[in-house]
Amino acid sequence: MTSGQQAAETPLSGGSPTAEQQASSTMRAIVQEAYGSADVLHMAQIPKPKIAENEVLVRVHAAGLGRGTWHVTRGLPYALRLAYGLRAPKNPVPGLDLAGTVVAIGAAVTRFAAGDQVFGVGKGSFAEYATARESQLARKPANISFEQASVVPVSACTALQALRAASQITPGQKVLVLGASGGVGSYAVQLAKAAGAEVTGVCSTGKVDLVSSLGADHVIDYTKQDFADGIEHYDLILDIAGNPTLSRLRRALTATGTAVITGGEEGGSWTGSMDRQLRALALSPFISQRLTMVFATQGSADLEHLAGLIEAGTLVPAVGRSYPLEQVSNAMRYFDAGKARGKIAITI
Ligand SMILES: NC(=O)c1ccc[n+]([C@@H]2O[C@H](COP(=O)([O-])OP(=O)(O)OC[C@H]3O[C@@H](n4cnc5c(N)ncnc54)[C@H](OP(=O)(O)O)[C@@H]3O)[C@@H](O)[C@H]2O)c1
Predict the structure, then answer these.
(1) Which CATH architecture has domain 155-293?
(2) What is the Å distance from ligand 1's center to 240 Cα?
(3) What pLDDT band is residue 287 in, cutting at 50, 70 and 90?
């Protein structure tokens, strides 16, 4: 296949397309015409997307469903609509994370060719085909399935960059992961362990076994114990979920410890958890502890680094459940109900 050539051709001659031509120019996809709950998601037959010069077309085999996709589906916090569409999503197909096979490449693409198995971030991965920038893809690790690869990109890049934001972890340091049972947390626990830290994960009762299985040295069930009870102090807190106040975070840190605020879901509808993160940045210069935040990106260098860790067996994606494409709304309801253990994959 030549550079820039699409795998799917549209009819060149006039007249109505045949059923065969129609099938090759369209695809099955989940679409949403408005922001909202899982109820806005439905299956449709729509045109295959066209690639730009710096993009590839991926035949999607699996897609990850996580908090980022949840936010875009809901259009929350509202500030997100400035980028994704004011009244409805500009791209009606949800889904960010993907793993699949390259079927066409743009004229400026140099790192991939048709047939390559890749994972990364695309535009609308809840579909048979999705476009993705070359710069947001890497080769899929050979030792994991497409399902496993599809749940890596956003969450694992976030965990990696949150740990980097904390500077060097030295072996034996005590690291606390709030939200250890979720998408980002399940990678954060493993990455912190790989760096030699003594890791404590915080989660709800039903997910204690999962967090232990990820390698955490200690697990705090937040329904029974307060991580900020003043008994233990941590060199690093990765604050991924739970929205603790800054004073509670500081109480659980050592005198010179660092907290990296990565997420939180209980902020206002307009800016989400940004308010807490900005207050942390404003306070940090005036105290002995360091409070910082991370705004994660998904570049190919980090994806390749993660692929290396996966191939070495250091990092294992935790797929709690998989759903077929036509069941995306059920998958979203399951996620919404807080039942997900680690990540959810959508198979296509
Ligand atoms: N900064 C960035 O660039 C970036 C990138 C990606 C995600 N995020 C944000 O990071 C946050 C987490 O994302 P995610 O994908 O990991 O979400 P997720 O998959 O929903 O995981 C969150 C986990 O936190 C647990 N949890 C809830 N309340 C908790 C509490 N009080 N203490 C400890 N754990 C608690 C939940 O399960 P249980 O309570 O049942 O254990 C769940 O497993 C979200 O707010 C997301 O928007 C930020």
Answers:
(1) 3-Layer(aba) Sandwich (3.40)
(2) 5
(3) very high
Contact between 237 and 259 (Cβ < 8 Å): yes
CATH code of the domain made up of 3-152+317-347: 3.90.180.10
Centre of ligand 1 to C-alpha 186, Å, is 10
Ligand 1, CB cutoff 6 Å, lining residues: 66-68, 154-155, 158, 178-179, 181-185, 202-204, 207, 222, 240-242, 262-265, 294-296, 338, 340
The rounded percent of the chain whose pLDDT value lies above 70 is 91
Kindly give the distance from the C-alpha atom of residue 347 to the centroid of ligand 1, in angstroms, as a whole number: 23
User: In this model, does residue 331 exceed pLDDT 90?
Assistant: yes
Give me the mean pLDDT over the 253-262 stretch.
Answer: 97
The answer to whether 266 and 242 are in contact (CB under 8 A) is no
- 60-95 pLDDT per residue, tens: 999 999 999 999 999 998 989 999 999 999 999 999
- Report pLDDT digits (tens) over 97-135: 999 999 999 999 999 999 999 999 999 999 999 999 999
Q: What is the mean pLDDT of the chain?
A: 93
Regarding beta strands 290-293 and 198-203, do their DSSP bridges make them parallel or antiparallel, or are they unpaired?
Answer: unpaired
Instruction: Read off the pLDDT band of 265 (50, 70, 90).
Output: confident
Tell the residue nearest (CA) to atom 25 of ligand 1: 179
Structure tokens that stand for 128 in this block: 């048979």
Which residues share a beta bridge with 119?
99, 138
Task: Spell out the residues 6+ positions from residue 105 whose beta carbon is closer than 8 angstroms to its own.
Answer: 1, 3, 4, 51, 56, 57, 112, 113, 114, 134
The residues spanned by each domain of the chain are: 3-152+317-347, 155-293
The pick from 71, 72, 181, 343 for probing ligand 1's pocket by mutation, whose C-beta has the most ligand atoms within 8 angstroms, reads 181
CA of 309 to the centre of ligand 1 (A): 23
Ligand 1: atom nearest CA of 264 is 45
Q: What is the mean pLDDT of residues 196-223?
A: 98
**Are 321 and 65 contacting, i.e. CB atoms less than 8 angstroms apart?**
no
